[in-house]
Design brief:
The first copy, chain A, is mainly α. In chain A, about 60% of the residues lie in helices and about 0% in strands. The first copy, chain A, binds a DNA duplex (21 and 21 nucleotides) through helix 2 and helix 4.
Chain lengths: ~240, ~240, ~240, ~240
DNA sequence: CATGAATGAGTCTTCATTCAT
DNA sequence: CATGAATGAAGACTCATTCAT
């Protein structure tokens, strides 16, 4: 499954100037389609670009956007600061792609998990979504954690382009809850929006403290969280 | 009740140079100890200092520490940037006090709420703590919300001095849960630390989306959250 | 006499951001009104600002806008590069004021010369205008010579704000010629616009080669030029 | 007629490093000597080289030397910036050849016009020179206009190599005037150097405003200018 | 011949900080 | 107490230049 782009934001490309002949943008699409068996011999440019994005994501996540220096990003990507501009037009453009990849990644991970489950209970579906969200956030993607962590402090103009996808993701969760409620697996009096806020909040805050140690730590956390969300802390 | 300072951090003063004769950093202590009958009128200095801190807290909360400039803080405090240095030795010192006040504020708010409750069920006590934490975070203190929001992205040396108090606050919550569990109001198999992370996480994440509109919005949110935490979403 | 500002461009101030509390802009007006006898104790800020503009004008004139570095300007003004930003928001703003002062200066000089002449022949009036233009250009103002020399190579957006004043100056000359022609002191078949271009061109090009040596060099040049323009090179 | 190189500057080649085997800088000589029957087809290299120079000239003329980037030049020449270095060792070398071609072009154009006139009055010869200069400047060569426009703002070391040719051109004009004066077609009291400055100035300044529209616009301008120079504006 | 990718020196600009007044 | 004016270090960004392919 692939997360379809929302209308407002046709890719990230729309905001690129690219007066130069440089290869800016486009990568996102290409990369995702790369099947492992084809091994599409990522060219040098592509590799550097990814290095930069990866480094940026890690640093943004740790220090925030404004505290992160292009020199830091460059150093981590093992190039010189000026070279970044061969691949991106500005620091903001890097941020833009980091955010985009990050949200797209959780969204796809969650969607995939739910879709592959086939015919299961709604609680199970939500449980899978919880697990997938946590995995994306804590295990598989610096982009996702960067996004979740820094988004709230960014100035308007940097947040704006990402709103549609964020909304879409929120609505995906809402739908999960609505279906569960309609099926009677969730109390009828539960309002969906605050519920989603509560759940996503509990999940997202884990970035603030969770440190990945062993393979199943995240799965364990997911299970625990699912239980709390469904059963609460009350003595049963 | 007053939150007592932990041993590691004897006030904020430990990091002050204060070669000049200026009153830097001493205010916190002084202010609180000010007897009402003796010095009812905050002197000008004190007022500016507070203005600066208040402005800083608001900006830190919104934009993060590094994206906030001293000129922005000064403008909001209706003074000029240079003047800040009469009251503080550095931007970091401002941060330091903002963080300190912020955590101290929730801590006191929560403690007060719980203590004033008198003899009530543990669930009720936890419910009051939840409410108090949310009130402090969303309604009464920019310091608290600033603290919660930016702490995670700060460099080590800025976080370090605040660890003891943070730990103390965490332990306070743990105790609430331990007591409840011991009393059988919470399942026996519930581990306290992950539980606290979950609860605090769900509460803290509200800064990311909650916008204070009417007076009871926070109380309403608190009630809802308490229910979710105790009963979960399951059909009863 | 004071050159009145054209409607399109109410001073230079219109394009100033000035989010900071710095004293940007406004100086132009203040300075001109300073009578010598009042000696309005130019404050430090004003002096630096003028130093910067003066330095910039000299360098722009010699090397062009883009080849001139803020560091060069600063060095010549005996300050550090960063300090420039206390007085101006950008290099372009400096340019802006240099251009403005430059044109305003010739315009005023020429207008004054002509107006103070009283009742004289049109040829005399034009002669005085020629002299005044050359004096402003070659002797009294680096701003004027900078303007004349670099204007043509500037990008559109930098030229645009100065068009109205330029047009006004051109029209002033046109009027001188029209009057002279009407009075029969200039051939009737002479078209005014190409004539003005020719005259102003011959005058302006002097910056490319004229080096001020002694006091009357410019006056001598002016006399010669006037003769050429009126009588041509033909044997009489 | 071919403008012979002056002694000081044996071609442009003197400043070339050319450690590589590349054909840098030799073109000028080669091209002109290319017999039509032998090498009618410019090779690819030659074509690119010319493209680069042509593009550079246009941009230099419009924006000045320092404001023009190699990438702009490359783009206009439909190649990539790096490729320029196959043809030139540096941006300055391009400038060097642009300047050289530019002056050489006017010089040849003027000389040819005058020489081909055969036995005519001196005024006619000067008239032809005026026309030829304007044609070269405004119609036939971006190199010439680039040269005229930017030369004055270049740093010493870039101007120096072109002085001899400039001087030669100036002397050529001086000779035209001297001959005319000797023949009594110009007043005896007219000093030649200021006269030449005046005339050349009036001609050169046209780049600042003249926009080529129809075929004879330049010729019309030339006629007008000639009249002004010889007869002045006086009522005859 | 040409390009893709990178580099380093330098540019404009920002900002915490200083200090005389 | 507060400000005006300045500074220096650093940040984002540009650009001529290099060089392997």
């Amino acid at each position: 499954m692939k997360v379809t782009r929302t209308s407002t934001r046709s890719g990230t490309g729309s905001r690129r100037k690219s007066a130069t002949g440089r290869p800016k943008g486009t990568s996102a699409g290409r990369k995702r389609s790369a099947r492992v068996e084809v091994a599409p011999v990522q060219m040098k440019s592509e590799r550097s670009r990814d290095q930069i994005l990866q480094s940026a994501a890690q640093l943004f996540r740790r220090q925030g956007f404004s505290a992160t220096t292009l020199r830091q990003i460059a150093a981590r990507a093992k190039i010189k600061a000026g070279s970044i501009y061969y691949h991106f037009d500005s620091k903001e453009e890097i941020l833009d792609e980091v955010l985009d990849r990050g949200l797209r990644h959780v969204f796809e991970t969650v969607k995939n998990a739910v879709e592959q489950a086939g015919k299961v209970s709604h609680r199970r579906r939500i449980g899978l979504a919880i697990e997938a969200h946590l995995v994306a956030l804590l295990e598989t993607s610096d982009f996702t954690s960067a996004n979740i962590r820094i988004y709230g402090q960014l100035p308007e103009h940097l947040k704006k382009p990402h709103r549609p996808l964020r909304r879409a993701y929120a609505e995906y969760w809402d739908q999960l809850f609505i279906n569960a409620r309609r099926a009677g697996e969730i109390r009828a009096d539960m309002e969906v929006v605050p519920l989603r806020m509560f759940v996503i909040g509990a999940l997202n805050w884990t970035i603030e403290w969770f440190r990945l140690e062993n393979r199943d730590a995240v799965l364990e956390l997911a299970r625990r969280t699912e239980t709390l969300i469904f059963e609460g802390v009350n003595k049963p």
